[in-house]
From TrEMBL:
Source organism, top-level taxon: Bacteria
Cross-referenced InterPro entries: AraC-bd (IPR003313), Homeodomain-like_sf (IPR009057), HTH-like (IPR037923), HTH_AraC (IPR018060), HTH_AraC-typ_CS (IPR018062), RmlC-like_jellyroll (IPR014710), Tscrpt_reg_AraC-type_HTH (IPR020449)
Protein name: AraC family transcriptional regulator
Keywords: DNA-binding, Transcription, Transcription regulation
Record PANTHER family: ARAC-FAMILY TRANSCRIPTIONAL REGULATOR, HTH-TYPE TRANSCRIPTIONAL ACTIVATOR RHAS
Alphabetical list of Gene3D superfamilies matching this protein: Homeodomain-like (1.10.10.60), Jelly Rolls (2.60.120.10)
Record-linked Pfam families: AraC_binding, HTH_18
PROSITE patterns in the cross-refs: HTH_ARAC_FAMILY_1 (PS00041), HTH_ARAC_FAMILY_2 (PS01124)
SUPFAM superfamilies given in the database record: Homeodomain-like (SSF46689), Regulatory protein AraC (SSF51215)
Length: 297
């Protein structure tokens, strides 16, 4: 198995677009895509049959009419067992596509991935009463993307906006238990400061990150930053740094050629034993067990 990072799934050719769409149809041959991760967000709609999705060390079963949200940087794999006719459509997009709504783009890029890691089951929306509408939205988006007619970028973007509006209007409580920033508005300047801190953590997780470093990046005292960060992200700063390191470790564990010691070093942990302890505390299983479960087909 070759582990990989998907940097661009745009299938239209030419300049990369901030979105893509595709579908998988099986009759009896089955389907499997190996563990991978990417920076874009994906919406997977199961039009027919059943699929198994592995993410965060757990297996989620997706049935006809279900909608799965796959957030940026999450390691995942998808399997449809042989002998089961199935069809699923995937729409992927860069969270910055929603940049006209800064709070929403922030939620998709940073807040939702953290909350999903804590409660993976919240990633699946069961909505049989809306299956007709969802099926139509996904089919129309796929058609627009595939045909790539004049102005299709606007059409695909509008479909993505419509789907995200429906998700947030009707299912935000399930996904985030009421923690959406739209419910608890944050001043744009403060949100920008938190975004800079999050970017700094993403860029420097391999290093020791000090309170003074984060204070300098945010242009505020550490005590003020820590309080603001917890109110926005619903977790302490130190716990979030640990989350980023563990998430990166999950990505590296895809590669069976990397040792646990190498992964510990590459993710900013001072010792392999401490890394194993923190990983087990966060994921409930050891890195070795996680890798074994992740790569199991």
């Amino acid at each position: 198995m070759k582990p990989y990072f998907e940097s661009n799934k745009n299938q239209t050719g030419g300049p990369e677009k901030p979105f893509y769409a595709g579908q998988v149809i099986t009759t009896s041959e089955g389907y499997h895509i190996d563990p991978h991760w990417h920076y874009h967000m994906e919406l997977l709609y199961m039009k027919d049959g059943t699929a198994r999705v592995r993410t965060h060390g757990e297996e989620l079963e997706i049935h006809e009419g279900d909608l799965l949200l796959m957030y940026p940087c999450e390691v995942h794999s998808v399997t449809v067992d042989s002998g089961i006719p199935s069809q699923h459509i995937i729409i992927g997009f860069d969270a910055e596509l929603l940049s006209p709504m800064p709070s929403l783009a922030f939620e998709l890029r940073y807040l939702m991935p953290y909350r999903a890691a804590v409660s993976p089951h919240r990633k699946v929306i069961h909505c049989p009463e809306e299956s007709g509408w969802l099926s139509e939205q996904f089919s129309n988006t796929l058609e627009e993307y595939t045909e790539a007619g004049s102005g299709y970028e606007l059409s695909v973007t509008s479909h993505i906006y419509r789907l995200m509006h429906w998700i947030l209007r009707h299912h935000s409580h399930q996904l985030l238990a009421g923690s959406l920033l739209s419910m608890h508005p944050v001043h744009p300047g403060k949100l920008d400061a938190i975004r800079e801190v999050l970017r700094y953590i993403d860029d420097h997780y391999q290093e020791e990150i000090s309170a003074s470093d984060l204070s300098h990046v945010s242009l505020m005292s550490y005590s003020h930053l820590a309080k603001l960060f917890k109110s926005v992200m619903h977790t302490p700063l130190t716990k979030y740094v640990n989350f980023v390191r563990i998430r990166k470790a999950e990505q590296l564990l895809i590669d069976p050629g990397k040792s646990i010691a190498e992964i510990a070093q590459e993710t900013g942990f001072s010792a392999s034993s401490y890394f194993i302890e923190q990983f087990k505390r966060t994921k409930g299983i050891s890195p070795h067990q996680y890798r074994k479960r992740l790569l199991k087909r």
